[in-house]
Design goal:
Helix content: 55-70%
Oligomer: single chain
Shape: globular
Strand content: 5-15%
Number of strands: 11
Structural class: alpha+beta
Largest sheet: 5 strands, antiparallel
Mean pLDDT: 78
Distance between the termini: 54 Å
Length: about 500
C-alpha cells in the first residue's frame, strides 16, 4: 500500500467516524482488534448526527467524501446480499449531484476533445445538470446548413485521476479487511471494488455511453411509447457526448403531467412494460431509471429516457430464467419457480425443491391481487434474499443490477399510478416471451445455440492435437526419448478419443 493510499484511507475513515457511519457496523461480527478500532472511531462522532439513523449517517458521509465514494455507495445499493436490505435501500437514495465546474473551462475541453468539430457547437448554456462524473449543457449544433438543439455531456476535469487514486485506496482497504477480518471474506470486498472499478471505467469513456444509446435504439426501433436521444458521432469523444435534445416534462412532476393532460396510468403501464421488454426480450436495459432520468413527451405521451452511463445486460439463459420466475409468480406456479432455480444451478441440488417452493409461496401469495400501493418491492426483495440465502443460493451479479433497476422502475410506476397492479401489467410481456420460448421459434434458437457450441467444439480439436504434438516434440528434443514413435501413437489415439467424446457431447446437446 502506498503512502498516498494510506493517507486517503485514513482521511476517509476519519470522515466516516465523524459522520457516525461506524454505528452501522456490528462489532460482534469483527475480530477483537477491529472492534477496538470501531469503538475508538465512534469517539469522534459529532453529537449533531446522533438524531439520524445509522443508514442515513453512512449516506451523508459518502456524500461528503465525494464522487468515488458516492459511486461506491451506489454499488452497495445493488448488493443487499452484502450490506443488508435496509442499508441498500437507503444508499439507493444517494443524490449523484455536485456543484458544476468552472464554465470557462468548457470551450477548452471541447476543443481538446473534438478539435475543429468543436466549432459546430454554439450557444452553450450554463450547466443544466452536474453529477459526480460529468455535467450537461444545452447547445446549438450547426452543420450542413441545418441547426438543431443538442445536449452536450462533458467529463469533469481531472475526474479520471481522482477515481484512479480513490480506487487504489479501495483495493488496499478491501485487502486489509480480508486479511484481518476473515468473517468479512464471504462478502468478497475485493470483488465489490472490482465491480466499482469496471463500472467507473465504463462511465469514464463517453464513447461507450454513445454505443449503448445506439444499441438500444436498434432494439426499440419498432416499439412505441419509449423514446431515447440520438447520438451525434461527429461530436462525441472519450470525454464529450453530444446527443439530440429531448423535450419533456419531468416524470416526477405529477402536477405538470396532469396540467398537460397526460394519462398517468398509461405512462405507468408504458414505463413498466418497456423496461420488461428491454430486459427480457433484448437482454439490454437502462439500469439507472430513477425519476431524474425520465420525462414524458407532452405531445405524444411517450416516455423519454436520458443518461445511459449505467446499462445492464443479461444473457438469453438469464432472460429465460427471469421470465419463468416472473411468470411463475403471476400464475402462482411456485413449484415451477423453485425447479427453475435448481435447473439453472442457482440452488444446490442438495436442497429440497418442495421446501424451496413452499418458501417462495410465502413470498408470492401476499402479492396476488394487490395494487402497487400495498406492495413494497424492497421488502419483497429483502425476503427473497433471505430465502435464497437459507437455501444456500449465491448472489447472481448478472441479476442483482436488474433487481435494483426493477425496484426503481416499480417505484416510478407506482408514483404515477398508486393503484397499478404490477403483475397484471407484466403478464403480456412476460407471458409472450415464455410462450415464444416454448414455441417453434424458441426451439429453433435453442438448436442454433447448440449448433454453435458443437461447431466450436469440433473446431478446437485440430488445435489441441497440434499443441500436444508440439509439446511432445519439445519434450523429445530435450530428453532424447527413445519412445518417440510410441508416444506419438498415444497422442493420435488420445486425439481420436477426444473426437469420440466431443461427438458424444454434441449428440447429447441435440437430444
Amino acid at each position: 500500500m502506498t503512502i498516498a493510499a494510506t493517507f486517503r484511507l485514513m482521511r476517509a475513515g476519519f470522515i466516516l467516524a465523524r459522520a457516525g457511519a461506524l454505528s452501522i457496523v456490528d462489532p460482534m461480527a469483527l475480530p477483537p482488534v477491529m472492534r477496538g478500532g470501531v469503538a475508538f472511531g465512534r469517539l469522534f462522532e459529532r453529537r449533531s448526527i446522533r438524531t439520524l439513523g445509522p443508514e442515513d449517517r453512512l449516506r451523508t458521509a459518502l456524500d461528503t467524501l465525494g464522487p468515488t465514494y458516492v459511486k461506491l455507495g451506489q454499488t452497495f445499493a445493488t448488493r443487499p446480499d452484502v450490506v443488508g436490505t435496509a442499508v441498500a435501500e437507503n444508499l439507493s437514495r444517494l443524490q449523484d449531484k455536485m456543484a458544476p465546474f468552472d464554465p470557462a473551462l468548457v470551450p477548452v475541453l471541447l476543443k481538446e476533445a473534438l478539435h475543429e468539430k468543436a466549432a459546430d457547437l454554439t450557444e452553450l448554456s450554463a450547466p443544466i445538470a452536474a453529477a459526480s462524473i460529468a455535467q450537461v449543457h444545452f447547445a446549438t449544433l450547426a452543420r450542413n446548413g441545418v441547426s438543431g438543439k443538442v445536449a452536450v455531456k462533458i467529463l469533469r476535469p481531472g475526474i479520471k485521476q481522482r477515481f484512479r487514486d480513490d480506487i487504489e485506496s479501495f483495493y488496499a482497504g478491501a485487502a486489509l479487511a480480508e486479511r484481518w477480518a476473515p468473517s468479512l471474506r464471504r462478502l468478497r470486498p475485493t470483488d465489490v471494488v472490482k465491480t466499482l472499478d469496471r463500472s467507473a471505467r465504463l462511465e469514464l469513456d463517453l464513447r461507450l455511453e454513445a454505443a449503448a444509446i445506439s444499441e438500444m435504439a436498434e432494439n426499440i426501433k419498432d416499439d412505441e411509447g419509449f423514446v431515447i436521444p440520438e447520438v451525434s458521432w461527429d461530436h462525441t469523444a472519450e470525454t464529450v457526448l453530444t446527443t439530440s435534445w429531448v423535450e419533456g416534462i419531468p416524470i416526477r412532476d405529477l402536477a405538470a403531467l396532469d396540467a398537460a393532460g397526460l394519462d398517468r396510468k398509461a405512462l405507468s403501464v408504458t414505463l413498466l412494460q418497456s423496461f420488461l421488454k428491454h430486459a427480457i426480450r433484448d437482454g439490454f436495459f437502462h439500469a439507472d431509471m430513477h425519476p431524474g432520468n425520465l420525462f414524458a413527451d407532452p405531445k405524444t405521451g411517450a416516455i423519454v429516457a436520458v443518461d445511459f452511463g449505467i446499462m445492464g445486460r443479461i444473457t438469453r439463459r438469464e432472460r429465460r430464467f427471469l421470465a419463468d420466475i416472473l411468470y411463475g409468480f403471476i400464475s402462482r406456479n411456485y413449484r415451477m419457480i423453485a425447479q427453475r432455480h435448481f435447473d439453472i444451478g442457482y440452488v444446490p441440488k442438495t436442497q429440497s425443491v418442495d421446501d424451496f417452493a413452499l418458501a417462495l409461496r410465502s413470498i408470492g401469495e401476499p402479492l396476488q391481487g394487490r395494487s402497487a400501493r400495498d406492495i413494497s418491492m424492497a421488502k419483497v426483495l429483502g425476503q427473497l434474499f433471505q430465502t435464497t440465502e437459507l437455501f444456500q443460493m449465491q448472489a447472481r451479479p448478472e441479476l442483482v443490477l436488474l433487481q435494483k433497476s426493477m425496484v426503481l422502475v416499480e417505484g416510478v410506476s407506482r408514483a404515477l399510478d398508486p393503484d397499478l397492479n404490477i403483475w397484471t401489467v407484466a403478464e403480456p410481456v412476460v407471458g409472450d416471451f415464455v410462450r415464444r420460448e416454448a414455441g417453434p421459434l424458441g426451439r429453433i434458437e435453442d438448436l442454433k445455440e447448440r449448433a454453435e457450441v458443437a461447431v466450436d467444439t469440433i473446431g478446437r480439436l485440430p488445435s489441441l492435437l497440434s499443441r500436444a504434438e508440439a509439446a511432445l516434440d519439445d519434450y523429445d528434443a530435450d530428453k532424447r526419448s527413445p519412445q518417440r514413435k510410441s508416444t506419438q501413437r498415444m497422442v493420435v489415439i488420445g486425439f481420436w478419443l477426444l473426437v469420440v467424446i466431443a461427438v458424444a457431447l454434441i449428440v447429447k446437446l441435440f437430444l
